[in-house]
């Protein structure tokens, strides 16, 4: 298991090289634009969440095509279950949706913030 310092350093490195979808979604989430503070590449041991709203205990994960293979699907399900057991809700969105229909993704996130 990665230590807190290793996770923090890995998250910092990931923030420096966001995907196109991560960059686009961050523009919509940053600076409390949805009325909630999000953090990007936020360590939630033993994982790093793409985006996390600590106050709402909501994680938003952007999934690309690499998440389509069976092994990754199994890993994602186990990860989501572990995070849920720790009190987090996980919302998974496709990177294609972030780029093609950003307002739909923002609406899903807004709805998840205020269930």
UniProtKB/TrEMBL annotation:
Location of region: Disordered: 1-22
Entries under InterPro entries matching the protein: DUF559, Endonuclease_DUF559_bact, Restrct_endonuc-II-like
UniProt-recorded Gene Ontology molecular function terms: endonuclease activity
Coiled coil residues, start to end: none
Assigned keywords, A-Z: Endonuclease, Hydrolase, Nuclease
Feature: compositional bias, Basic and acidic residues: 1-12
Ranges where the DUF559 domain occurs: 8-113
CDD domains according to UniProt: Endonuclease_DUF559 (cd01038)
PANTHER family referenced in this protein's UniProt entry, alphabetically: BLL0828 PROTEIN
Entry protein name: DNA G:T-mismatch repair endonuclease
High-level lineage: Bacteria, Pseudomonadati, Pseudomonadota, Alphaproteobacteria, Caulobacterales
